[in-house]
Design a protein that fits this description.
443 residues, alpha+beta, 4-stranded antiparallel sheet, 30 strands, 17% helix
């Protein structure tokens, strides 16, 4: 009897394994980082990835998502500056291993290092995409990673962004930044609203519509809310809105004088800001849960524009305490103040999420973006006209920056790599656009 039970258990185990093999390729520990390292070691600057149209395996596709989703994925990967993308409008047949091998072999012969195969299931209002990554540098054209992503059909672009971010994660160990947004200010003198747009300029729409002047958007680390200064009550008070929730705007600071330049602490519990309630613009820290304020600076000069280090232990800020406006750094308690910049007129410090760089705006004729290490070394210029280039905001990966520029007549939003290369405009609406704030990765 014991032998019979053992045989039945063995048979059940075999059937379970066989069923899993038929349902999907065998699970594979991701070896994608090794592929990227080997490709870069060969002298290539980018990994060439082959992306055919996705294969519809269930449901109808009246919205042509099998073509639209891989197009957006390809654009996201090109923007990352890590990939070159070769598209193919011919989807792969379902369950044809030999056809798959032939397509991958042809792509590899043409110079592709990797391939992305998307299997799309559509049902009702939901879309599920299974992404399969292949290493085309290996003789066996091995599968190196798989993952399923599900989203509403109405959010097909976001589905594509999440797939692109997963591809970046598989190869680099850090998620991409495609599923992010950029908040910005747009309008005319006397009426400026906050707007929101995908990182690539898709889907712009207003965040405020109070017909007042709204300035200086700053994302909370959980990407749920945006702190900003608004004159909607007649004075420059600090508010908080919830970008993706139907909740009323909250007042964070409404003191006599100015309530400006919000900057969330990395843990999201506090907001550093500038208040002049005691007569002179000074930097304070607001504990959001209790409404308690803590003053950090006490100087006859103007102290403003705080920016937290990613550890939360230091704050960069602008001060004219030494004459002209310069960039300073202090400990989070307001102690150990040291000056980072020398010549010129320097403002708008923005601390990198990686912690190794502070970008700022320097006026030396035109306004341009410069960078400096937190210890004051390695000062370098990132932009050199045309027009003015100001108000940088870091992407959550610390590899890209958004900023506003007048290089194309009027002010508009641009992105570029952190070394100043590959600038490109971000389509917006609402008039001249300024003060971009790049969101954290969305949940």
């Amino acid at each position: 009897m014991r032998e019979v039970r053992a045989l039945l258990a063995l048979a059940a185990a075999v059937l379970t394994v066989a069923a899993s093999l038929l349902a999907s390729p065998p699970p594979a520990r991701s070896q994608a980082p090794d592929v990227l390292l080997n490709v870069m070691a060969s002298g290539a600057k980018r990994l060439n990835i082959f992306i055919p149209d996705f294969t519809v395996v269930a449901g109808a596709d009246p919205g042509v998502l099998a073509k639209r989703v891989p197009e957006v994925v390809g654009a996201d990967l090109r923007f990352s500056a890590l990939f070159s993308v070769v598209s193919d409008p011919a989807p792969l047949p379902v369950g044809d291993a030999e056809a798959l091998r032939q397509r991958w072999s042809g792509a590899a012969a043409a110079g592709a290092h990797a391939a992305l195969h998307g299997l799309l299931s559509l049902g009702g209002t939901r879309a599920t995409a299974e992404m399969r990554l292949y290493d085309l540098t290996s003789p066996e054209l091995r599968l190196i990673a798989t993952k399923k992503v599900e989203m509403p059909v109405a959010e097909a672009r976001r589905l594509a962004h999440k797939i692109a971010d997963e591809v970046v994660f598989q190869f680099t160990g850090e998620p991409g930044i495609a599923d992010t947004r950029i908040a910005y200010v747009a309008g005319r003198p006397g009426a400026k609203e906050l707007y929101l747009v995908d990182y690539d300029g898709a889907g712009p729409h207003p965040l405020t519509a109070n017909r007042s002047v709204n300035l200086s958007p700053a994302w909370s680390p959980d990407s749920r809310s945006v702190a900003f200064t608004s004159y909607l009550g007649g004075y420059p008070y600090l508010y908080r809105l919830f970008a993706f929730e139907r909740r009323p705007v909250q007042l964070l600071a409404g003191y006599l004088g100015i309530n400006i330049s919000p900057a969330w602490s990395p843990d999201g519990r506090s907001v550093a800001l500038t208040l002049s309630k005691d007569g002179n613009p000074e930097i304070y820290v607001l504990t959001v849960a209790t409404g308690a304020f803590r003053r950090l600076t006490t100087h006859s000069g103007i102290d403003t524009e705080p920016s937290w280090s990613p550890t939360g232990r230091e704050i960069a800020f602008t001060s004219d305490r030494a004459g002209r406006a310069q960039i300073f750094v202090m400990d989070a308690e307001g102690t150990n103040v040291r000056r980072l910049t020398g010549g010129g007129f320097n403002t708008q410090p923005r601390w990198s999420p990686r912690g190794d760089t502070i970008v700022y705006t320097s006026r030396q004729g035109n306004h341009d973006l410069w960078a400096v290490s937190p210890d004051g070394s390695n000062v370098r210029r990132l932009t050199a006209g045309p027009g003015d280039n100001e108000s940088a905001s870091w992407a959550p990966n610390g590899r890209h920056l958004a900023f506003h520029s007048s290089r194309l007549r009027g002010s508009s939003i641009f992105t570029m790599l952190a070394d100043g290369s590959e600038p490109q405009p971000v389509p917006t609406q609402g008039g001249e656009a300024t003060s971009p704030a790049w969101s954290p990765r969305l949940p």
